[in-house]
Amino acid sequence: MKAPGRIDTARLTLRQPEMGDALSMFERYASDPDVTRFLGWPRHRTVEDTEAFLRFSTDEWERWPAGPYLIELRGDGRLLGSTGLGFQTPDQAVTGYVLARDAWGKGYATEALAAMIAVARLTGLAQLYALCHPEHARSRRVLEKCGFVRDDPPTRRTEFPNLAPGVQQDALCYVLGVEGARGDAA
After folding, report:
1. Strand 79-89 to 127-132 pairing
2. Which residues of 104-115 are buried (b: 16+ CB within 10 A; e: fewer)?
3. Residue whose C-alpha is closest to residue 133's, from 158, 152, 107
4. Residue 174 belongs to what H/E stretch?
5. Which letter does DSSP use for residue 47 in this model?
6. DSSP-derived secondary structure for 152-165
7. Nearest-angstrom CA–CA distance, 137 and 18
8. Which of 2, 84, 87, 157 is 20 to 30 A from 67 via CA?
9. Domains of the chain
10. pLDDT for 125-173, tens place per residue?
């Protein structure tokens, strides 16, 4: 089943990105070295990098039941960050989240992740997982609060290009059987 292109939660609107979002995404979070430090994608150095991501996003939405979502503050539409599902197979997807600095510590990541869990249920996923840098304690807490548990084996190798480009590092792997997930999209 195809996911909705727009989801409203208590405080957030999650929506499918559009090409017109490039400059705002670039300025709010995608080019910020502090925001992108622990991410699995390289910090955007130009708006063209963000536009390339938006083309990728469109392709993901065409190929799979869902893809990336932008996170906006409900009511005023201020861009806070992004989240989404990255399908690996029809039954398994990876998720994650990134928020602009002024959106940190307000529970937005937890609310957005709960919405992604609801989307995973809707699209028929059996398993959702997330990779997290071992030093990113806040992200680990968000994952655990939403019911994710460390996988066995608990680590996987991946690149964190904003910390050490081209170097594979240990990442904590958190998994969630979607049927037992907590959280709901409004």
Report:
1. unpaired
2. eeeebbbbbbbb
3. 158
4. strand 168-177
5. H
6. EEEEEEEE-TTTST
7. 31
8. 157
9. 6-180 (3.40.630.30)
10. 999 999 999 999 999 999 999 999 999 887 899 999 999 999 999 999 9
